[in-house]
Design a protein that fits this description.
heterodimer, A: about 425 residues, alpha/beta, D-Maltodextrin-Binding Protein, domain 2, two-stranded antiparallel ribbon, 20 helices, about 45% helix, B: about 280 residues, mainly alpha, MetI-like fold, two-stranded antiparallel sheet, 13 helices, about 5% strand, Sugar ABC transporter substrate-binding protein (chain A)
């Protein structure tokens, strides 16, 4: 036998013997892939919070590794659905409300009862009950838990209100709203407007639900018909669209250039002091406060009309679920339970600046919401409980915000008639969804 | 093995790789487009239904028209400007020429999303640099994105700005490849600079010009990032071009059937365009 051959045999035997040594921790370590829009390496409060939650969880569960993959928020759920169709989806998904019905209908989400909810006490379930819980519950199966609960109403600059001698609490009706917006609009000596009373963006890219939607909902009318077809051009819809476009055309309290602003443009304008009130989301408050200061950003509910004290704001959020085809469902479920459980929920509120998902978290916050700048958490919680609206999930609602924004653009830029524009938006939405 | 098969043997690995990464998604797309799609998965066979739905869409002719205007204008302007720039740089000294090349190519090497955002922040958004300058000059605020025509003009401008660096580099390489003797001989024969350019330089640039035209056409015709970030397709539908329509169908309304059908139609349109370019230029290898 040649020495080199002997050496090869010896090396082979050594390899086999090493491979046979049991390494339980290494062998059993499960990798759980999660798709979200937050980047754990980022610096915004929510991103920092997610990074901490992942790190804490991994420290407590060394046999599980959470791998976070970040996607653009408007593409996240459609990409997940496509990945589910291809059989290669991530183990945990953050699904947007607009596509939640598709995600459940596609059978892409596992029943969380089987993973961990069946072990919960009735008190634990009651702690989480509410419209968000109901939205993800079908036929007794719980497909997801909500996080990043988003209440979209008015964000305002308390310093500008003070400067104008206004109290946000006095804005009770839409007329009050227009009056306040006028008082907050500031013109320089040359006659140019340097600050607008109110701003919202009409771009189809990164579209938030515009002011007209709460107005329509407050009238008792719906945005959709029962069969899922659009109901934009109702008399209430026409009146609401006219109201919001008149803020630019008639009252001059909103910027005409907002016809092409995205959500991010609106926040930039707000942060730079070019708008005193904006249509804004509760989840963005902490980021804005980190830029401007805690006392420079407030949140209020929409005004009401008639018997409706406050118009229902569009609520959104991210439904976190476990992929039905995951090979590591148990581990994925364990992380979801931790991330949205009492410890995680408290972190999302105190560090991430989000609205609490559990009643016990809200109760346990004590004086936290009395701290400067934290009152918005109470506003969002009150609004979510009493004055909120979630897009239906019995049919796909994807694209309704974009359709309404485009209708607004046509009115503002092309001078199109309000009713005609809304009817066009209805027809386009119905055609796109083959309804 | 017979010598005539030797060449085939060499290209098999490359062809297999190309088939895997380039052609297999096309084949999959063709197959996918022939089915009803529900929740992202192919369900029942639909034949050409997705294509029929696409053709029946009343917004499609407008989108196609805007795509042709955008691509035609962006490609023409880029080629004219880049040719002028390349000729100018070619005449500059080595050091100055290098510096100008570096400046021109910067927009090309940065990501399209970043480049478009920069453009939006500096030139468009009224809290940006351009807005401040306009205000300092005592002029009224300008809202270029709010008019359908100026929004399209801006989209074309961004596209030209983004891609001109690539065109300049390719054309400059073409110019450097032309022997100096030709120009010198023409000058001795009494040709004017314009005659030299028209009769000698331009014809000898046919191949790089064709390459630039093809690449620019394809990149403009298929760009989704620029309109998405700059205008979001608005105002109204003023800057909605075909790739954005595919994006919206796939990711906004989640109509994967028509999105796939449109994407495939665009793919075959691209192939036809390349063939047409090559044929028009009578390119012989």
């Amino acid at each position: 036998m040649k020495p080199s051959f002997k050496a090869s045999i010896a090396a082979g035997l050594l390899s086999l013997s090493v491979a046979s040594i049991p390494f339980p921790a290494l062998a059993q370590k499960a990798t759980v892939r999660m798709w979200t829009f937050l980047n754990p390496a980022g610096t915004t409060p929510r991103e920092v919070t997610l990074a901490k939650i992942v790190s804490d969880f991994q420290a407590a569960n060394p046999d599980i590794e959470i791998v976070t993959e970040t996607h653009a928020f408007d593409q996240l759920t459609p990409k997940f659905l496509a990945a589910h169709g291809a059989g290669k989806a991530p183990d945990i998904i953050w699904a947007a409300t607009d596509f939640l019905g598709d995600a459940i209908g596609a059978g892409s989400l596992a029943d969380l009862n089987d993973l961990f909810i069946k072990k919960w006490t009735p008190e634990q379930i009651a702690d989480r009950k509410g419209p968000y819980w109901d939205l993800t519950n079908r036929n007794g199966k719980q497909y997801a838990l909500f996080t990043s609960r988003n209440y979209i109403s008015i964000l305002y600059r308390p310093d500008f209100f003070k400067e104008a001698g206004l109290d946000p609490a006095t804005i009770k009706t839409w007329d009050d709203f227009v009056k306040a917006a006028k008082a907050l609009t500031v013109t320089d000596t040359s006659g140019q407007i340097v600050r607008y009373g109110f701003a919202q963006g009409y771009s189809e890219h990164q579209a938030d639900p515009l002011l007209m939607i709460p107005m329509v909902l407050a009238s008792g009318e719906g945005i959709f018909k029962k069969d899922g077809r659009a109901n934009f051009a109702s008399p209430a819809g026409v009146a609401a669209m006219k109201f919001q476009t008149d803020l630019i055309k008639e009252h001059k309290v909103s910027p005409p250039q907002a016809a092409t602003w995205t959500v991010d443009d609106v926040y930039e304008q707000f942060a730079s002091g070019r708008a005193a009130m904006i249509l804004g989301a509760s989840v963005r408050v902490s980021t804005l406060q980190s830029k401007l200061g805690d006392d420079k950003v407030g949140m209020m509910l929409w005004p009401g009309s008639g018997d409706v004290k406050h118009a229902p704001a569009v609520m959104a959020g991210w439904a976190v679920g476990v992929w039905s085809g995951s090979k590591v469902k148990a581990q994925a479920g364990k992380f979801v339970e931790y991330m949205l459980g009492p410890d995680g929920d408290k972190l999302w509120v105190t560090s991430g600046g989000q609205s609490p998902g559990l009643q016990s978290t809200l109760n346990g916050l004590g004086d936290f919401t009395k701290q400067p700048g934290k009152a918005y958490l109470n506003v969002a919680s009150e609004g979510s409980a009493n004055y909120g609206w979630l897009a239906p999930i019995d049919f796909s609602a994807g694209g309704y915000r974009q359709a309404l924004n485009k209708a607004g653009q046509r009115i503002l830029v092309n001078g199109e008639d309000v009713k005609t524009s809304l009817e066009r938006a209805e027809a386009e939405f119905n055609r796109q969804h083959k309804r | 093995m017979h010598p005539k098969y030797t060449g085939i043997q060499y290209i098999i690995p490359a062809f297999a790789l190309l088939t895997l990464v380039l052609f297999s998604p096309v084949f999959y797309g063709v197959w996918f487009s022939l089915f009803h799609i529900q929740y992202g998965a192919a369900t029942t066979f639909a034949g050409v239904q997705n294509y029929q739905d696409l053709l029946a869409d009343p917004t499609l002719p407008g989108t196609l028209q805007r795509s042709i205007i955008f691509t035609g204008a962006a490609v023409s302007i880029t080629i004219v400007l880049s040719l002028a720039l390349a000729v100018w740089i070619h005449k500059l000294g080595e050091r100055r020429g290098f510096l100008v090349q570096m400046v021109v190519i910067v927009p090309w090497i940065i990501s399209t999303v970043v480049a478009t955002l920069l453009f939006r922040w500096v030139f468009v958004n009224d809290i940006g640099l351009a807005g401040s300058i306009v205000k300092m000059m005592g002029l009224d605020e300008i809202h270029l994105l709010n008019s359908p025509h100026s929004a399209m003009a801006l989209l074309i401008a961004v596209s030209v700005w983004k891609r001109i660096g690539y065109a300049v580099i390719i054309l400059l390489a073409g110019l450097k490849g032309i022997p100096d003797d030709y120009e010198e001989a023409a000058r001795i024969d009494g040709a004017t600079p314009w005659q030299i350019f028209r009769r000698i330089t331009f014809p000898l640039l046919k191949t790089p010009l064709l390459l630039v035209a093809i690449v620019l056409t394809l990149s403009n015709l298929n760009t989704v990032e620029t309109p998405l970030v700059l205008t979001g397709g608005g105002p109204g539908d003023a800057t909605r071009i075909l790739p954005m329509d595919v994006f919206d169908r796939a990711f906004i309304t989640y109509d994967l059937g028509s999105a796939t059908a449109l994407a495939l139609a665009m793919f075959f349109g691209n192939v036809l365009l390349v063939l047409a370019y090559v044929r028009l230029a009578k390119w012989k290898t």
